[in-house]
Design brief:
four-stranded antiparallel beta sheet; alpha+beta; 8 strands; 5 helices
Length: 143
């Protein structure tokens, strides 16, 4: 995990969930491989390939490094599965969780929230991330 860069101007860090919880990662990979093998066996190559794509897209972010950068201008998230760059003004609500804070573009719960929100995983920088979100992010925090 990288250290924050220039804390007065920006906060940058990276998170790789697999490195922090290898047991969960190995179990997820074994389950995914079992499901893909069963899909190949029972449904054929096309169904097997489709299941591999769906499961790979679902659990893939757990195995790769995601880089985050917060600045007074906005939020940037980069990984092989996601590239997001948005200004703070795009977020109307923040959901603070145990492993990260979710920034939502909606004023309340919304059906599209899981697809439009941006999740900032804390890694080892929980206090700093929350400080930035409270300083520049949405004024409303959800329970």
């Amino acid at each position: 995990m990288s250290a924050p860069l220039d804390p007065g101007r920006e906060l940058a860090w990276s998170v790789r969930p697999f490195a922090a919880d290898r047991t969960r990662g190995v179990l997820a990979a074994l389950v995914a491989l079992s499901v893909v093998a069963a899909a190949f066996r029972l449904g054929g190559p096309l169904v097997g390939a489709f299941s591999a794509l769906v499961l790979g897209g679902g659990i893939g972010p757990f195995f790769v490094t995601t880089r985050y950068r917060l600045s007074p201008e906005g939020v940037e998230v980069r990984s092989p599965f996601q590239r997001v760059q948005r200004p703070w003004s795009a977020f109307l609500r923040a959901y603070i969780g145990e492993r990260g804070v979710s920034l939502s573009p909606f004023t309340g719960r919304h059906l599209l929230e899981p697809y439009r929100s941006v999740m900032l995983r804390y890694g080892e920088h929980r206090d700093q991330v929350l400080e930035w979100v409270r300083r520049f992010g949405p004024r409303e925090e959800a329970a």
